[in-house]
């Protein structure tokens, strides 16, 4: 087995990973349902194939970057799934945001000798584009060390958090902080705007104080796309461990009312929500 890295899912996270791996000289095989994404991977000199099972054949690491738990099942399980072609010594790297139970399901389905790690990504699309992903990993630490050289081209840090599923638990905690910050920041800025303080001036001032954060600085660049899924995962984990999560509940309600256009308007000095028509 050579050190080929398979990427299944060539979206906003997967395609930049292909780019950084190819720039580092790592052989990459890639697949996606979107012909434009496949063409982009081919332009990066990745070998493109038509299915997950073909991508996994002969690869040392098979990394999955698809949106949902059901998508992970679709590309990993069954006769055309990646696990059907994976050989002993290879590693399935679950990079999607998943529930820990889904990670356990993939491990139970893995052939003998095939290891499974959950490797949740933080840092967002900009982190992926820059090769600065912060990776939260669960699973066998020896397996992680074995494949670490194949993670280096597209990560800034790799943290082993515990057994399989721990990376996803860490990502769920990360996501709760992220969406709660956005909810609090937008509410605070709107409060100040209504009380007469210009939002651009206040935001700049907050960046020089103890409440500064990457979220405050990069709010205008955020897509605000995955809050429903992320906070549903938070609720499911909270139910499992019997913990009330009122902050998560509030963030879930707030994020349903906020979009990219709302944030842009607020940061430019306008109201967070459109004013009612006269």
TrEMBL record:
UniProt keyword annotations, A-Z: NAD, Oxidoreductase
Active site: 171
InterPro entries: 6-PGluconate_DH-like_C_sf, 6PGD_dom2, 6PGDH_NADP-bd, HIBADH-like_NADP-bd, HIBADH-related, NAD(P)-bd_dom_sf
Keyword Oxidoreductase assigned: yes
All residue ranges annotated as the 3-hydroxyisobutyrate dehydrogenase-like NAD-binding domain in the record: 165-258
Keyword Ribosomal protein attributed: no
Domain (6-phosphogluconate dehydrogenase NADP-binding): residue spans on this chain: 5-160
Entry's Gene Ontology molecular function annotations: NAD binding; NADP binding; oxidoreductase activity
Pfam families: NAD_binding_11 (PF14833), NAD_binding_2 (PF03446)
Similarity comment: Belongs to the HIBADH-related family.
Protein name: 6-phosphogluconate dehydrogenase
Organism, as annotated: Phytohabitans suffuscus
């Amino acid at each position: 087995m050579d050190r080929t890295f398979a990427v299944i899912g060539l979206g906003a996270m997967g395609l930049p990973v292909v780019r950084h791996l190819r720039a580092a000289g790592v052989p990459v095989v890639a697949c996606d349902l979107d012909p434009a994404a496949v063409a982009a991977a081919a332009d990066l000199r990745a070998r493109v194939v038509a299915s997950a099972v073909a991508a996994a054949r002969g690869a040392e690491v098979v990394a999955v970057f698809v949106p949902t738990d059901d998508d992970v099942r679709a590309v990993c399980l069954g006769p055309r799934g990646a696990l059907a072609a994976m050989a002993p010594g290879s590693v399935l790297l679950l990079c999607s945001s998943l529930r820990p139970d889904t990670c356990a399901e993939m491990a139970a389905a893995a052939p003998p000798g095939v290891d499974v790690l959950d490797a949740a990504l933080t840092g967002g699309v900009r982190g992926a584009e820059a090769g600065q992903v912060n990776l939260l990993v669960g699973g066998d630490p020896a397996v992680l060390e074995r494949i670490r050289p194949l993670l280096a081209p597209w990560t800034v840090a790799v943290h082993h958090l515990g057994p399989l599923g721990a990376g996803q638990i860490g990502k769920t905690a990360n996501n709760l902080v992220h969406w709660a910050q956005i909810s609090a920041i937008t509410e605070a800025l709107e409060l100040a705007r209504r009380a007469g303080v210009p939002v651009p001036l206040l935001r700049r001032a907050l960046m020089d104080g103890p409440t500064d954060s990457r979220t405050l600085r990069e709010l205008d660049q955020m897509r605000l796309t995955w809050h429903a899924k992320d906070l549903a995962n938070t609720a499911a984990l909270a139910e499992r461990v019997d913990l009330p999560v009122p902050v998560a509940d509030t963030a879930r309600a707030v994020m349903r009312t906020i979009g990219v256009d709302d944030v842009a308007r607020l940061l430019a000095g306008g109201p967070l929500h459109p004013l009612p028509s006269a």
